[in-house]
From TrEMBL:
Family statement: Belongs to the chorismate synthase family.
Protein name (record): Chorismate synthase
Pathway(s): Metabolic intermediate biosynthesis; chorismate biosynthesis; chorismate from D-erythrose 4-phosphate and phosphoenolpyruvate: step 7/7
SUPFAM superfamilies: Chorismate synthase, AroC
Cited Pfam families: Chorismate_synt
Binding annotation for FMN: R125, S126, S127, N237, A238, G277, K292, P293, T294, S295, S296, R318
Gene that this sequence comes from: aroC
Keywords: Amino-acid biosynthesis, Aromatic amino acid biosynthesis, FAD, Flavoprotein, FMN, Lyase, NADP
Lineage of source species: Bacteria, Pseudomonadati, Pseudomonadota, Betaproteobacteria, Burkholderiales
Length: 365
């Protein structure tokens, strides 16, 4: 393993580069007999793909997925599923000016020192382009979990730069380019227009929620469900922080408030984010991630070249001024992959466990 695979029982290996001929993944461990077509996957890819609004990169990629193996007569066979997404709109010449220098805040410097070579075209392997196969694999996991447990995944933006976004309704998320849970997004449109004109970038905060999660997923001590969620989320480009449930707000809580009281009808609150002792409670999983500002911007910045000499870097090309805008479907996919992995683990180890007391499922949040 060299950091390109997530999961063990449901193992997803990601391959490709931003400006290579194609990107994709191989899913090993998907249970057999599940109906699966490209259409089951394409919807999530369309939500993530570039060029969908003026606020994201204008790279025009259809992100059309092809299933190369692991499906026969419309059903999964239990063998590896290979998914391919062809790159069609590369502009490698845009990166010729940074081939000998390093973008501040980008992986250029660390890749060069680790491997002694790097692909500067679009960031190569470190590009957010490589999140498309993750979304494709997540769609497969989502379908299996929905059929098996009724599990559903949702994500929305809760902060854009310094602008907080109050939650109104999940219904608004699919109606605007920000995945924002509000009806009116004009202030965020104006904010992004001004940011782009200034040649700058900003970060974002994303909330991810999973409902219909069965009780008992997760293992002590180092394979806790929340530990694996944090590990997966930190694998997403530009993520610098992960919170489960109340997260850092827990610091200011009192024990009388933070502990989620239980009644025969359900939990009173969900400060734990649906995880206790690393094991799912049956409540909604609640995760929040912090995404840093995009490193590739046209404003000049101080840096060095591959010879260690001072230089000034201006990044040309087509880039997201806020990579968080397209992060919601990616974060959903990552959470689905973790839940899928633990669902298969739990089925293998604990399927025969007899429980005399039924779990409480309801939450009063």
């Amino acid at each position: 393993m060299s950091g390109n695979t997530i999961g063990t029982l449901f193992a997803v290996t990601n391959f490709g580069e931003s400006h290579g001929p194609a990107i994709g993944c191989v899913i090993d461990g998907c249970p057999p007999g599940m109906p699966l077509t490209e259409a089951d996957i394409q919807g999530d890819l369309d939500r993530r793909r570039p060029g969908t609004s003026r606020h994201v990169t204008q790279r025009n990629e259809p992100d059309a997925v092809e299933i190369l193996s692991g499906v026969y007569e419309g059903k999964t066979t239990g063998t590896p599923i290979a998914l391919l997404i062809r790159n069609t709109d590369q502009r490698s010449k845009d990166y010729s000016n940074i081939a000998q220098s390093f973008r501040p805040g980008h992986a250029d410097y660390t890749y060069w020192h680790k491997y002694g070579i790097r692909d500067p075209r679009g960031g190569g392997r470190s590009s957010a382009r490589l999140t498309a196969p993750t979304v494709a694999a997540g769609a497969v996991a989502k379908k299996w979990l929905a059929q098996q447990y009724g599990t559903q995944f949702r994500a929305c933006m809760t902060q854009l730069g310094e602008l907080p976004i109050a939650f109104e309704s999940w219904d608004h998320v699919r109606e605007n380019p920000f995945f924002a849970p509000v009806a009116d997004v004009q202030q965020y449109e104006d904010y992004m227009d001004a940011l782009r004109k200034a040649g700058d970038s900003c970060g974002a905060r994303i909330r991810i929620s999973a409902s219909g999660v069965p009780v008992g997923l997760g293992e002590p001590l180092y394979d806790k469900l929340d530990a694996d969620i944090a590990h997966a989320m930190m694998g997403l480009n530009a993520v610098k922080g992960v919170e489960i449930g109340a997260g850092f707000e827990s610091v200011a809580h009192r024990g009388t408030m933070h502990g989620d009281s239980m009644t025969p009808q359900g939990f009173r609150t969900n400060h734990a984010g649906g995880v206790l002792g690393g094991i799912s409670t049956g409540q909604d999983l609640e995760v929040s991630i912090a995404i840093k500002p995009t490193s590739s911007i046209i404003s000049p910045r101080e840096s060095i070249d591959i010879h260690g000499q001072p230089t000034e870097v201006i990044t040309k090309g087509r880039h997201d001024p806020c990579v968080g805008i397209r992060a919601a479907p990616i974060a959903e996919a990552l959470l689905a992959l973790v839940v899928m992995e633990h669902a298969l683990r739990n089925r293998a180890q604990c399927a025969d466990v007899v429980r005399e007391v039924a779990p409480i499922q309801a939450s009063f949040l």
